[in-house]
Design a protein that fits this description.
The protein has 9 helices and 10 strands. The protein has 254 residues and is α/β, with parallel strands linked by helices. 47% of the residues are buried.
Length: 254
């Protein structure tokens, strides 16, 4: 189990994705350069709609699929006046490398640097983490605090999720990749929105609720009634509007 555990955590779709503008109107391909020498593909989607908020969202996905599956969500955010950087980690979406906790954080650092180059420094950026991506952006915000943080289906730490699904295993002893979300948040002053479904079969809803309870700077807790982890609503307009509300609140307070 120790040897194969990363195959139980990461489920990359390594298929190459099409050019950004073939999928999302006005989008363009962006190249990320990681500190350990990898070159990764990503998509940048400019803000559309009636209002450009002059703010960007770095979208750190969960452990499956690739950015093609998040295109509609990026579209929703763009229509709400937010620019979007839609990334794929190493090993996902035609990118080189193999995923690990340290590797995903390095990929997110490269994404934040790319956004700054595009004109969106951390104080004009929201980090959006989805499921496993909540562990990535929680760590990133501790190093490079953004204007706000959105955690969709977060967990307290990965060992708590593993213990739920594999109660007969000594998960805490075996686990190499910890993703300690609450540890990264404990001293944070970044405003946090927590979104989760109350029927989540992947990340128990009680873990997401605990993140909301213990986040030092909770801006909003949005519970989607009857929603499971990968239901369409979890990638839809209601979640995008929660991101836009956080953007509006931090912009008003700046």
């Amino acid at each position: 189990m120790w040897a194969i555990q990363r195959r139980l955590i990461y489920f990359p779709d390594s298929s190459p994705v099409p050019p950004a503008d073939e999928v999302i109107a006005g989008a363009r391909d962006v190249t990320l350069h990681t500190e350990d020498g990898l070159t990764l593909g990503a998509w940048f989607v400019p803000a559309r709609g009636r209002r450009d908020r002059d703010m960007a969202v770095l979208v750190a996905p969960g452990n499956g699929g690739n950015r093609l599956g998040r295109a509609d969500f990026a579209d929703e955010l763009s229509d709400l006046g937010l620019a979007v950087l839609l990334i794929d980690y190493r090993g996902y979406g035609g990118n080189p490398g193999s995923p690990s906790e340290d590797g995903l954080l390095a990929d997110a650092r490269a994404a934040a640097e790319a956004l700054e180059y595009l004109g969106y420094p951390p104080e004009r950026t929201l980090y959006f983490g989805e499921s496993l991506g909540t562990g990535v952006v929680a760590a990133l915000q501790a190093e490079r605090p953004p204007a706000g943080l959105v955690l969709r289906s977060p967990f307290t730490e990965l060992a708590d999720v593993g213990s739920h699904h594999y109660p007969w295993l000594p998960v805490r002893v075996l686990l190499r990749d910890g993703f300690p979300v609450l540890d990264h948040l404990k001293d944070s002053e970044v405003p946090v929105t927590v979104v989760y479904g109350d029927r989540d079969s992947v990340v128990p809803s009680r873990l997401s609720a605990r993140v909301a309870d213990e986040a030092p700077s909770l801006a909003e807790e949005l519970v989607l009634q009857g929603a499971d982890h990968n239901d369409p609503v979890m990638f839809g307009p209601e979640v995008a509007r929660a991101v836009a509300r956080l953007a509006a609140s931090v912009d008003k307070g700046s």
